[in-house]
Specification:
The structure holds 2 protein chains of 2 kinds. By secondary structure, chain A is α/β, with parallel strands linked by helices. Chain A folds into 2 domains: 150 residues, Aspartate Aminotransferase, domain 1 (Alpha-Beta Complex), CATH 3.90.1150.10; 224 residues, Type I PLP-dependent aspartate aminotransferase-like (Major domain) (Aspartate Aminotransferase, domain 2, 3-Layer(aba) Sandwich), CATH 3.40.640.10. Helix content of chain A is 43%, strand content 14%. An 8-stranded mixed β-sheet of chain A has the order 3-10-9-8-7-4-5-6, sandwiched between helices. In chain A, strands 11-12-15-14 form a 4-stranded antiparallel β-sheet. A two-stranded parallel sheet of chain A has the order 2-13. In chain A, 49% of the residues are buried. The N terminus of chain A is likely disordered. Chain B folds into 3 domains: 87 residues, Rossmann fold (3-Layer(aba) Sandwich), CATH 3.40.50; 131 residues, ATP-grasp fold, B domain (D-amino Acid Aminotransferase, Chain A, domain 1); 69 residues, ATP-grasp fold, A domain (Dna Ligase, domain 1), CATH 3.30.1490.20. In chain B, the strands form 3 sheets. In chain B, strands 8, 9, 10, 11, 12 and 13 form a 6-stranded antiparallel β-sheet that branches. In chain B, a hairpin with a 5-residue loop joins β12 and β13. In chain B, α1 packs across α13. Chain B is globular and about 60 Å long. The two termini of chain B are 19 Å apart. The N terminus of chain B is likely disordered. Classes of the chains: A alpha/beta, B alpha+beta. β1 of chain A pairs antiparallel with β11 of chain B.
Chain lengths: 437, 318
């Protein structure tokens, strides 16, 4: 629709500008997003996106599986299915969750279009505008988008090198309730945290669960990386020790393929019923084609051996990242040491701002995600997330080399002009800044 | 129908610049417009495969819609000229003059165009002389408020309005994130307008003046590229003689810098009706929220037909 304009009348080039919901107010073009358009170029070493290394998959086997599926079961695979998800797949998901200790019934599972959809549905079912969701500091960027879209208020809770701090969580609950606000959910990524790279140990998980139980709150446990620990051990899910008070989110995006968009939620009966209805409202049903592809894959391929292949792929990349960070980063730079998953959280030397530094980084042909993206309250300016899952190890080393040069230059600018972080950091009354390194 | 309608035209869009996303959108829109005008058009990115792709396509003409240094500093046009390809837009030398804001301002000032007083300062100057002393001298000379921006760049990337001296260091840091030299200029208060210019048989002529009123007060990246974030008035809500003056300024800029085919000058009109030149763009944005297409529409023209006519001119003169 071309803009129409009469003499003297203004136009905003969007006839619906006055019709959008209030929740869309923050959806604007941004310089940071513009820079990520450059990051997609092959000349740029992107340590930004968390793209799984799908090339390590047995692609021929998957191609055969899909072809066979359409040829032999096309009438089902290409048709609408159950809003709760394929029954056989739900049974198989129980086997997939066995290593993390989650015991459940297939009826407790709701299959969704990625665990992102499961997260969306849980928030949709639980949160009214203004409700508070307690999250880690920092937290998964797209989870923040979900909370924002449902007009939740996000309160960040401090982490340390073992993840979410129970004392900080207890205090945040008390403070929020004392202010008359309603806490609806506690959202955690306990294993190989995105973006922090840290992992909650068994004692920490028990303490977190105890705090949540005492407060009568529902814990939303997001576990995309639980099987990707590099030493072969698998952290026990919090859901394994609490079925009524935890909704567990799982996904095949990292253990099989992100492009298939299959995830799930394990929820207690009452919650699960609502999630199914919400799922049907959102998508009618998850894709039968991709569900059956995964089901066939689980049945015919050594899927757990493939997980071990992925572990090794990501371990090698993690090592390349850590070695080069150790060798090249300027003094004052700190980083988390992930034992699994995809990410390391880097804290720049005092006085530097990762958002302000990004244009210089992209000009130097390296990309990362600035730390502010993982906070709802403006924290994180001095930090950034590095993702090591996708580039080859040599490219990772090259990317860190470029980043080190950028940081050196930025230090020089900061020395010349003083600390931009001190000027730009907004004070936060909710959660202290978290240094996870 | 022009001869270009039977030959392939290549639009260049993308490149490795912070304005890549804007360029891609501009390129797609112009390519769609050309196709609607009956011109067979392809869109290519600027990468290691470009020269081989151009050799394959052997286009009748190239339309660069690259924003930022990659497309506006003249380098890519030098290469295209060396390949013997007709190119829409300004020549390499003119691009270099236009893209460097201090150089463009000093040149147009000699032609009588009013420009804000400014200083172009490399980062090394602050390091060698001490940032505090230099910034004090800047404020002493230019006063407040100020506009700080990279000397080379667009879409307001790295640009900051500075109203207090305490904010000046952060603004310098933001500008230096995009380049080694920052432009500090006296801020001009007034009506912000964009004046698009197109060459035709009679020479350069200005299209209707577009007034820009961003919600947040500053026409930053978000205001430029988020639909609804800025209100536009075409023609601008200025007296007729002021509109004519804006048009004269934009044409003078186009002629003085030796620009060709199309350009867009960004001006501020002060309370007395004087247009102040800020910068000129040799590859104007053509996105859904850009001002050049709005001016084309207001002039009763079609973007595809206009671009096709520029393609014909480029082919004829090559």
């Amino acid at each position: 629709m071309e803009p129409t304009q009469q003499p003297g009348a203004g136009t905003r080039l969007d006839p619906w500008v006055d019709s959008y919901a209030a929740r869309t107010r923050g959806l604007t073009a941004s310089q940071v997003r513009a820079l990520f358009a450059v990051a997609s170029r092959p000349e740029v070493v992107s340590l930004a996106g968390g793209m799984p290394f799908v090339s390590a998959l047995p692609l021929d086997a998957i191609a055969d599986t899909v072809a066979r599926l359409v040829r032999d079961r096309g009438a089902v695979a290409l048709q609408y299915g159950s809003g709760q998800g394929d029954v056989r797949l739900r049974e198989q998901i129980l086997e997939v969750m066995a290593p993390v200790g989650v015991m459940a019934h297939p009826d407790d599972i709701v299959v969704t279009a990625g665990s992102q959809m499961a997260l969306d549905l849980v928030v949709r079912v639980f949160c009214d505008p203004g409700d508070v969701v307690l999250v880690e500091a920092p937290t998964y960027v797209t989870a923040l988008g979900v909370f924002s879209s449902y007009q939740c208020e996000v309160v960040h809770v401090a982490m340390d090198d073992e993840g979410l701090r129970p004392d900080a969580l207890r205090e945040a609950i008390a403070t929020t309730r004392a202010a008359g606000r309603t806490v609806k959910l506690v959202y955690t990524i306990p294993s190989f945290h995105n973006p922090g790279g840290v992992c909650q140990g068994p004692m920490r998980r028990a303490e977190v669960l105890d705090v949540v139980r005492s407060a009568g709150l529902l814990l939303l446990e997001d576990d995309p990386y639980g099987l990707l620990g590099f030493d072969g051990s698998v952290p026990r899910a919090i859901r394994a020790d609490e079925s009524e008070g935890v909704v567990y989110l799982g996904t095949f995006s990292k253990t099989i393929a992100a492009g298939l968009r299959v995830g799930w939620a394990v929820a207690p009966h009452g919650v699960r019923e609502k999630l199914v209805l919400a799922n049907e409202t959102a998508t009618l049903c998850p894709s039968n084609l991709t569900q059956l592809t995964i089901s066939e894959y689980l049945a015919t391929q050594p899927w757990f051996e493939q997980v071990k292949v992925f572990r090794e792929v990501y371990r090698e990349r993690r090592d390349a990242l850590l070695e080069s960070l150790g060798a090249l980063m300027p003094a004052g730079t700190r980083w988390s040491v992930p034992a699994g998953g995809f990410y390391s959280w880097v804290t720049l030397p005092d006085g530097l701002d990762a958002t302000a530094m990004l244009p210089r980084a992209v000009a130097a042909l390296v990309a990362y995600v600035p730390g502010t993206g993982f906070f709802a309250d403006g924290q994180g300016r001095q930090s950034l997330r590095l993702s090591y899952c996708y580039p080859e190890p040599e490219r990772i080393r090259e990317g860190v080399r470029r980043l080190a040069g950028v940081i050196e230059t930025e230090l020089e600018v900061a020395t010349t002009f003083g600390s931009p972080t001190a000027r730009a950091e907004r004070p936060s009354a909710s959660a202290p800044y978290t240094d996870l390194a | 129908m022009s001869s270009a309608s039977n030959d392939r035209v290549v639009v260049l869009a993308g490149g490795l610049s912070p304005e890549r996303d804007v360029s891609i959108r501009s390129g797609r829109r112009v390519a769609d417009a050309l196709r609607s005008a009956g011109v067979d058009t392809a869109v290519l990115d600027v990468d290691a495969g470009l020269l081989a792709a151009l050799a394959d396509h052997r286009p009748a003409c190239v339309v660069p819609l690259l924003h930022g240094a990659v497309g506006e500093d003249g380098a890519i046009r030098d290469v295209l000229v060396a390949l013997g390809l007709p190119v829409v837009g300004s020549g390499p030398a003119a691009c270099r003059r236009a893209f460097d804001k201090p150089i463009a301002s000093s040149l147009v000032a000699t032609a009588g165009v009013v420009v804000p007083e400014s200083m172009a300062l490399p980062h090394t100057t602050f390091r060698e002389l001490g940032a505090g002393a230099v910034l004090d001298a800047v404020v002493e000379r230019l006063g407040l408020p100020l506009m700080v921006k990279p000397t080379r760049g667009g879409s307001s990337l790295g640009a900051t309005v500075v109203r207090t001296a305490a904010d000046l260091p952060a603004a310098m840091v933001a500008a230096f994130a995009y380049g080694d030299i920052a432009l500090v200029e006296r801020f001009v208060t007034g009506t912000e307008v964009a004046v698009s210019v197109v060459d035709d048989a009679g020479g350069p002529r200005a299209l209707p003046v577009v007034e820009v009123v961003p919600d947040g007060g500053f026409y930053d990246y978000g205001a430029r590229y988020t639909a609804g974030a800025t209100e536009f008035f075409t023609p601008a809500r200025l007296r007729g003689e002021v509109l004519a003056s804006c048009a004269e300024v934009a044409v003078a800029v186009h002629r003085t810098l030796g620009l060709r085919d199309w350009s867009r000058s960004d001006l501020i009109v002060d309370a007395e009706g004087t247009p102040w030149f800020l910068e000129v763009n040799v590859a104007p944005g053509m996105t859904e929220t850009s001002t050049y297409p709005q001016a084309v529409l207001a002039a009763g023209l079609d973007l595809g037909a206009l671009t096709a006519s520029l393609v014909d001119r480029a082919i004829t003169r090559s």
